[in-house]
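Incident log, support desk, overnight shift.

02:14 A customer reports that sequence design results differ from what the structure should imply. Their input is reproduced verbatim below. On-call engineer (initials T.W.) acknowledged and began investigating.
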């Protein structure tokens, strides 16, 4: 009679073993879930806090980049204005230089009166300089 119950006892032991294995697995998974939940929600080192800090930093860096970009644009505008002013100054300097060259050439083309070199030098020194 004992031998006839043996298959049932083995089947029962197998079911108890499977049930115990499931309980151990479920308990282990609950521990892992609890650990992961702590890692996610920890107010000092949790993933949610780190994500919030990252989002805040990204917003701050985005705002700073926008600010730096606008300052670079302003600097570019100032540089363009300086370049334009320098170009105008170069044009004026070139024009004034050409005018001065023309005046000097006109002075050099005029005959200097005087019998000696000393008289000619004094006449050159006494001659009024043209205004330009």
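02:41 Re-run completed on a clean worker. Output:
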């Amino acid at each position: 009679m004992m031998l006839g119950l043996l298959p049932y006892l083995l089947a029962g032991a197998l079911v108890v073993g499977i049930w115990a294995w499931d309980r151990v697995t479920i308990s282990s998974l609950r521990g892992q879930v609890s650990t992961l939940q702590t890692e996610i929600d920890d107010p000092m080192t949790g993933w949610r806090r780190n994500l919030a800090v990252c989002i805040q930093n990204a917003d701050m860096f985005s705002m700073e980049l926008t600010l730096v970009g606008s300052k670079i644009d302003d600097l570019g505008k100032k540089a363009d204005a300086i370049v334009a002013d320098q170009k105008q100054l170069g044009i004026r300097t070139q024009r004034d230089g050409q005018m001065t060259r023309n005046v000097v050439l006109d002075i050099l083309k005029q005959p200097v009166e005087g019998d000696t070199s000393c008289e000619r030098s004094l006449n050159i020194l006494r001659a009024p300089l043209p205004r330009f």
